[in-house]
Amino acid sequence: MNLAYLVVVVVAIASVVAYEPRPHRPAAKRRIGARGTLALGCACLLSLGCFAALLFLDERAMSQQVLLHPQPLLAWQVWDDRAPPMRWLSDVVLGIALVQSLALLVAYVLLRGATVGMVARLLVGATSLTMLVLAMTSRTLKSADLFAYAGIARLGLGAYDPRGAFAGEYAAINHYWGTPMIPDVYGPLWTFLSHAVYMSGSGLTRVILELRGLEVVAFVAIIFALRAMKYGDEVVAVFAINGAIVDQFIRDGHNDLFAIALVVLAFPLVARFPMVAVLLVAGAIAVKISFVAVGATVFAAEASRRRRLSFFAAAVLLGCGGSAAFAGAAYPNAIAEVSRRVMEDGVTHGIHVLAIVAVGLACAVALWLRRFNAGVSYAHIALGLLPIPWYVVWGFPYAMRAGFAATFLVSLPFVLSLLTMSYAFTPLRAAIFFVVVVAALFAILHAWRSGRFGPAFAARAQSRES
Predict the structure, then answer these.
(1) Would residue 26 count as lying in a domain?
(2) What sign does the dihedral 444-450-451-453 (CA atoms) show?
(3) Is residue 421 part of a domain?
């Protein structure tokens, strides 16, 4: 894990000292044409095929795993980190992820600056819908987080200080999260939503499917927000058919996408309805406290520094104050307890702190000066307790403000696959990490020798890739 933090720090520093922003020049509109539509269809099919292949490989790889919760609807299989690693699978999955990113790149190139017809949009929509259906009905999980969410759903506010074991089908939660289960580290907004899901239907399968459904709502909301911000079809497409996002946040059901959606929804509203944007950012903070930094990018659209800081302070006070009002001291106590359990070794913890400081300073620069650096988008992984791969996506709002949204989305499948902890750390993965670090160090050295250290941050608060 300390290697992941090292990569984050080095790449972030390299981008700060070596990044040279280029002015955005919108391309002239052109017709996509029949051949372009056919090529787009092939890219969509390739992206869908890669996603389906990953689902198939995961299901085959889990043949030795414990089968949980046999029910008529679904039988859950959850990745067991104690199982012997399959080294061949690790490299195959990484190769498929690279193909996914290439398919997204093709779709982006075809749609950028083009007049997109109904057929092309239907292709993208059908591909996205098929991915969502496959993810919603998949019985395999690479992470047991959905079981933790189900436990939170059942306990409600009691999840901040859980006691005893679950009975019946819910006993699967204790298999993965201990007895009693690990305390709830999420804000009260997510706890209330999860409990509302449980109240609507008590079966474990139904709860898990409805929790996945919440992430589908967030996924669709982000697409509408991108449209409202006048992003081009190419950016909407590389989000909608992005297998990495669907895999992490729909199939595995990580609740981060819900918080990200609240932040992204605030973007088109902050200019005309700033108080609504404040409430949305406060809601994201009430889902995950780390979104104090993520939500700061929302208010960079405001020209007045005083208003930017005032709106941000209001969002933080509402989010943190609301969390304290509803959850009391139990919430910070739960975070402290989980932090103690996952405490890193001294070297890793030091690198982690350095990475947090780097990202925090970048977000402060964004809020104070309305300046952004594209490379910081990837460094948001450092804001979590551990370098969990899907935390990289926390940087998507920042990437949007930095005019880096499309590049960020296209790279996600490969980046997330490279950082994943579900597969063996093979020589190929080690070699790629080495290349990334060495390339970043050379970028820093080149900038140092040429006497060029700026402009490290570009003033692009209003920019869009369209």
Answers:
(1) no
(2) negative
(3) yes
